[in-house]
Write a structure and sequence with these properties.
Layout (H helix, E strand, L loop, with lengths): L2 H31 E7 L3 H15 L2 E7 L1 H11 L4 E4 L2 H9 L3 E10 L1 E6 L19 E4 L5 H10 L1 H9 L2 E3 L2 H10 L4 E5 H5 L4 E4 L2 H4 L3 E8 L5 H12 L4 H7 L3 E2 L10 E7 L3 H15 L2 E7 L1 H11 L10 E3 L15 E15 L19 E4 L5 H12 L3 H5 L2 E5 L2 H9 L5 E5 H4 L6 E5 L2 H4 E8 L6 H13 L1 H6 L3 E2 L6 E2 L12
Parallel strand pairs: 1-2, 1-3, 6-7, 6-8, 12-13, 12-14, 16-17, 16-18
Antiparallel strand pairs: 3-10, 4-10, 4-11, 5-8, 5-9, 14-20, 15-18, 15-19, 15-20, 15-21, 15-22
Helix pairs in contact: 2-11, 5-6
């Protein structure tokens, strides 16, 4: 090929590559330079102010669409596009979840229903029955469109039907009710407490039938969102006490509390070695989706607890926000920092031998036979070692088996590797350690009362990223199939348990 022609071809290829890269960077930039947010009308003022602050700080345009919560849900379902949905109540968020319209959610503010009247309450409206009087013009929102009336209707039961029949006007949003009341077109309306604070000349009347009830206004990532990281970043900004929380409070709302603002937050996770088999790919997926810096330390739980105790103060930036132990017995040493745990997974402890079981091992007592090379985990460094030693002590086999112990290591994966190399005849490990190698190892079951290991997941009580850690737990729960395919039994749907009430068998207590 002539040099000139070759040069032209190379130039054309280079130009095409540059153009493609430019188009790709342009499209990526477009994906994160603006967000579409569907927002309940009652939250318009604070959310608009927060969106303006976000644009000024991060250069991201937030396009807001307002309406009644029920109306917005219908729009989202039809449009199948957008990034966030800001709902005024928990029920609407639940409805959105059932319709598979949302993924993660973050609470932003707490609201309660009240009766709004003009300042001074000249009509003397003090009870629910006062709303039915002939001289009171009542305004309500449409329960099919606005969450305030959907919630009120549920709370009031049959009384709601009578009020709805008497209402002088029924509007699609809570802000329209407040505006009518401010203008004097009506005498009373059922609205959110925060709505009253946003309109001059209005006062709230608390009624026991309504005002003891609380609802969360929340931001949820839409299932149709094309850039979840960007949506979650704005959601965190909305919830952060030092960003959106301040603005919500200035507009009369009670902030729900959130993590301190960080454009790219960090999270430290300590995990027992056994959990790595399932959790590692899920953690990467979570970190990518949330765009967080996730530091994970895997080791024996004895080593992890010792490291936490050595740091002494949770203010240390290396102190974990999350602790995922190999068994409940290793929560007690750090229960003060992790006062509540969710039992996430479960696996059995087994004796593993080479395929075909050449030594003919059938019971725990067989490990005491002369000439065997046995591998155990270290009792001070790991949960498995601690449980194994306690098991052998409880069965009276500790001294007779220990004479055959050829190696003690911090985590079970070391034992698996040494058996694969042919240097051990039997090891005591978790069932999930050998499950990936069915053609290399045989497993021998141990008595059920000794062989169950339950993996608790706990969030540090003073973690600055406690909400983020909670979303990690929810994310893991949504990927339970990954744990089950790795051989774990899933238990993460159970309620959290105070750490000092975890059921630790007597033989495992110090």
């Amino acid at each position: 090929m002539p040099r000139r022609l070759l040069a032209l071809v190379c130039f054309a290829i280079a130009s095409a590559i540059i153009a493609l890269l430019w188009l790709r960077s342009g499209s990526d930039s477009a994906a994160t330079s603006s967000l579409t947010v569907y927002c309940a009308a009652g939250l318009k003022k604070p959310v608009e102010a927060i969106a303006n602050a976000y644009r000024e700080e991060l250069g991201v345009e937030v396009n807001l669409q307002y309406g009644g919560t029920g109306t917005l849900l219908s729009q989202i379902e039809v449009a199948k596009r957008g990034d966030l949905f800001i709902a005024a109540d928990d029920g609407s968020l639940s409805d959105a979840g059932k319709r598979q319209l949302i993924a993660e959610s973050l609470p932003l503010a707490v609201q309660r229903p009240v009766i709004a009247v003009k300042s001074g309450n000249s009509k003397g409206i003090l009870t629910l029955s006062d709303l039915s009087r002939d001289d009171v013009r009542l305004a309500l929102a449409n329960p099919e469109a606005a969450s305030i009336s959907k919630v009120s209707k549920k709370l009031l039961g049959d009384t709601w039907d009578g009020l709805a029949a008497k209402a002088a006007v029924m509007k699609p949003t809570v802000t329209e009710l407040a505006a009518d009341l401010q203008l004097g077109a009506v005498d009373a309306a059922i609205v959110w407490d925060a709505t009253v604070r946003q309109f001059d000349g209005l006062a709230a009347v608390d009624l026991p039938e309504l005002s003891q009830h609380r609802e969360n206004a929340s931001a949820a990532v839409l299932s149709a969102c094309q850039d979840p990281s960007a949506a979650l970043r704005f959601a965190r900004y909305l919830a952060a006490p030092d960003r959106g929380g301040r603005i919500f409070e200035a507009h009369g709302f009670t902030p729900a509390g959130g993590d301190a603002w960080a454009e790219r937050p960090s999270l430290v996770l300590y995990s027992g070695g056994v959990n790595r088999l399932a959790i590692e790919p899920v953690l990467k997926e979570f970190a990518d989706r949330e765009n967080v810096e996730l530091t994970t330390v895997y080791n024996g739980c004895g080593i992890l607890c010792a490291a936490m105790k050595a740091m002494t103060d949770t203010a240390n930036p290396k102190f974990p926000d999350v602790y995922y132990a190999c068994d409940v017995c290793f929560v007690a040493p750090v229960a003060e920092q992790f006062p509540e745990a969710v039992l996430l997974t479960e696996t059995a402890i087994v004796i593993a031998v080479p395929e075909g079981n050449p030594a003919g091992i059938k019971t725990l007592a067989d490990l005491a036979r002369d000439g065997l090379r046995v591998g155990l985990c270290n009792a001070e460094q790991s949960t498995l070692g601690f449980m194994t030693t306690a098991m052998l002590r409880q069965t009276g086999l500790l001294d007779s088996v220990r004479k055959n112990v050829a190696v003690e290591v911090p985590t079970a994966d070391f034992l698996v590797n040494q058996m694969r190399a042919g240097s051990l005849d039997a090891i005591i490990v978790y069932e999930v350690n050998v499950a990936p190698h069915p053609t290399l190892f045989d497993s021998i079951a141990l008595p059920e009362e000794f062989s169950k290991a339950i993996q608790p997941f706990a969030v540090r009580k003073d973690s600055p990223n406690a909400r983020l850690a909670g979303r990690l737990l929810a994310f893991l729960s949504s990927r339970s199939a990954v744990f089950e395919s790795a051989g774990f039994r899933w238990r993460g749907d159970e309620q959290a348990i105070p750490s000092d009430r975890l059921d630790v068998p007597p033989w495992l207590k110090p």
